[in-house]
Amino acid sequence: MDPFEKLNESLGSWGEIIKPLFFFGILLLLGPGLIITNVSEIIHQGDGFSFWGDDYGPEDPEFAGEVIWEGTTDETWTVELSNADPSMRVWVEEGKAIDVSVPRSGANFEPCYPSECDYFNNANESIPGYEFVGYIDTNINNTYDVQFTPTGENNETTSIIVTKETFRTPGIVLVLGVLAGTFLSCVMILMAYHTTKEMREEAESERKAAEGKARSTAAKGTFSKNTWIGPDGTESGPSVPEDWYLTYDGPPPIVEAIYDENYVVDRGNGTVPVDFYIKKWGVPQGFGNTDHEKLWSME
Predict the structure, then answer these.
(1) Is residue 237 scored above 60 in pLDDT?
(2) Whole-model pTM?
(3) What letters, b where the CB count within 10 A reaches 16 and e where it falls short, cover 112-130?
């Protein structure tokens, strides 16, 4: 038999298999996805991993932030800004002065206080050759044209760098993400296992029912005029083998009379030896008074 036919018989039709497996497959991707993403971030943070999370300090290589744009005062920086993003830090070439403006309402430039400027510019991990001058804050998500104008004596072209503050994801969030991914994966695996098991059991029940029906149909086709279906679906009649009771697994046959060493019953070929009947089902109601019956009922 073809392997696919065997699988179809054991689990059910392909349509019934693919739908739940597709559903579970999507959900299972979520679990490993959470695990891989969060474990990768934990590894990336390395020695800087913090359970509660913190900002980068002035000794950290990423203190200055992620570089978003580099240009000069001859250029206009067109950028899409969001109030969900951290503030943009503006760094100017050392010894130069500029004016920063955002003509469109919804974002603005905030110069740093002297003490704050000194804090950034004296940090070990500030940008060499540049000075921190302030932030670009956003209130409304939109696209903005940021203009940089030199204010020095000679209005010289000045180099500009814009960076974005970076923050570590707190370790507790990463750990919870790993645990959630593990839990979700286990739940989905168990659900897939039990669903597949139920499908197998249902398919097996259907297969047995089909086989029973086929056997019944075949048996009906081979019955002679001296054979019929008796009580409890038992093949009955004079053509039934004399030892029919050896394979009979139904309820105790109803005893109608006793003839010599046999009980006359309502199915099979009509007789069952007294000793066999009493050993398997006990003495039938209304009988048991003959010496032969007493012999077997006392053992």
Answers:
(1) yes
(2) 0.46
(3) beeeeeeebbebeebbeeb
